Amino acid sequence: MVGLCSLLLCCSLLAIHPVAAAVDDGEDDPEWVSKLWSGSIQHYPNTAEAEELLDKFMIECPGQMRKEEIGESLEHRKIFAYVLTKKDTPAGVVKPRLMVTSLMHSREPGGLAVSLYAIGRLCEDYKKGTDPRTVYLLDTREIWIVPIVNPDGYKVVEDPTMRDVRKNRRDTCPMNPVKSGVDLNRNFGYKWSGQYRKCSEEYAGEGPFSEPETQALKRMVEERDFKIALNFHSYGTMLTYPFNHANTDKSTLPTDDEAVFKELAEVFGFDRYGPAHKLLGYTASGESDDWFYGAMGIISMSPEIGSESGGFYSPVEEIPGIVHRNYRRIRHALHKTGLELRRVTCSPGSSAGMMKMTLKNGGVGAGFGSHAAVAVGGCGPSPVTGKIAQIARRSDTDFEVQCPAENMAPGESHKICIVEEIPASVTPAICRCAVTSMGGETSKRAEWATPLEDDTCRAAVRSLTDPNTEILVSSGVAVEDGTTSGLPALPSVTVASHRFGLSPEWQRSWLLLFSEGAMQQWVIVAGVVVGVACLWLFIYTLWCAGAQKLLLQQTNANAANQVEPHS
């Protein structure tokens, strides 16, 4: 029994925290990735080397990637945004958008490495089809990445004697070329201040948006609806967000937006997060995050990547971890721009035989289409199906289904699957499911499944495409009876699942979680991957009391670290 519990412990921890194991392990990375830490600028790629990689990605992924010129620098170098999404989206369909920028400060090439890695991985993973989450994200969302905001400054740092150049190349300090220029991250138009001298590293320019580089970003943002922005800087392993001009340690944000920033900071794995004054002891007027958020309503933040000891040019051994870790942050932010299924609960309905289901959207955008289809299991011989209206930003949606009383008792599991309405050219290949019981709550992350191999998902897809399917609205509206759960009934426990790997040819990894009664603490029971099959071990917590204690400690310690903890 001890041996079995040890196997359970090891396999379960690997299943729940795959990002915690060997973050710097690049065995699965393609060959081009090594160019991110074998370049000409203290191991980082210079402009020509970066452009060579970007041109490679453009050739290899014509159906998912395009290049848009958004402006020119002071010295007339072009500034490009690389847009990744499924190209054949119907006209008039607007997908939720994420913006990523790097090299606003030319001596911070870590952000460039992250941008290049993200572009390459999203492009290749979509093209290969081996990562269903990437396929879903690029089918239903759009990411704009500006790898080199300050091309003039980055060209200058190719000279080893000019590696400390931070600003653009406006001639403001003739006696000291390294200190010449305008700090682009003080040149934005929200609470801009002209207090800095021209040779200061924070010189903000003659006025807000005086520089062509910031004008380019301004135009790009004003012409499009971005939900979230990540502006990568170095260094210090912290996350800054608005309002950076404020001379206070207290938050000045609306409560709900503050909650979004904190959620992202904790999921990203940052111990230190907040506005500049709180983290650094000084304010930053005219800063990009303040304008993106304060003027444009974008949830905008700046990950400061790389260790304190590594400085602006992190040593080569740290670069793989930096790019892997921040790629996961980018993908999570991209997901959060749209519908992010955070919670599913069920409770007694408004009358006998009715069960109320509640869905929570934790994303900062609504669903992709105007409706979503829902299938509920555990209430009869066939799925209970219907449609719900688009779930608004960070809100709950309630609906009711008919369910016999014997299927609404505590401990009875109900599988609920949601499929978003997708425009005609995008296949609804991702069905998100969770399992709940009366009075219970699922884990925060929903299961990823496929309608091709899941009965409940198939029912949801059918109801989505059937114009005669009834629309589920607020509590009290009955729909057709029935469904099958798809999971074995388990006595006196609540079950939730989180599933990756979505078709018969893809390797599967399942994670099953148990909790007792009130679901206040999760206990990992089992999840062992064997080739393309998944072996389930159901073991009562009484049998593995010692393993349960260790697992609870590990789960609580890592609750906020859904993405690998920072360096």
From TrEMBL:
<dbReference type="InterPro" id="IPR033810">
    <property type="entry name" value="Carboxypeptidase_T"/>
</dbReference>
<keyword id="KW-0378">Hydrolase</keyword>
<dbReference type="Pfam" id="PF00246">
    <property type="entry name" value="Peptidase_M14"/>
</dbReference>
<comment type="similarity">
    <text>Belongs to the peptidase M14 family.</text>
</comment>
<feature type="transmembrane region" description="Helical">
    <location>
        <begin position="522"/>
        <end position="543"/>
    </location>
</feature>
<keyword id="KW-1133">Transmembrane helix</keyword>
<keyword id="KW-0732">Signal</keyword>
<feature type="signal peptide">
    <location>
        <begin position="1"/>
        <end position="21"/>
    </location>
</feature>
<feature type="active site" description="Proton donor/acceptor">
    <location>
        <position position="304"/>
    </location>
</feature>
<dbReference type="GO" id="GO:0006508">
    <property type="term" value="P:proteolysis"/>
</dbReference>
<keyword id="KW-0862">Zinc</keyword>
<feature type="domain" description="Peptidase M14">
    <location>
        <begin position="42"/>
        <end position="337"/>
    </location>
</feature>
<dbReference type="GO" id="GO:0005615">
    <property type="term" value="C:extracellular space"/>
</dbReference>
<protein>
    <recommendedName>
        <fullName>Peptidase M14 domain-containing protein</fullName>
    </recommendedName>
</protein>
<dbReference type="GO" id="GO:0004181">
    <property type="term" value="F:metallocarboxypeptidase activity"/>
</dbReference>
<dbReference type="GO" id="GO:0008270">
    <property type="term" value="F:zinc ion binding"/>
</dbReference>
<keyword id="KW-0472">Membrane</keyword>
<keyword id="KW-0812">Transmembrane</keyword>
<keyword id="KW-0482">Metalloprotease</keyword>
<keyword id="KW-0645">Protease</keyword>
<dbReference type="InterPro" id="IPR000834">
    <property type="entry name" value="Peptidase_M14"/>
</dbReference>
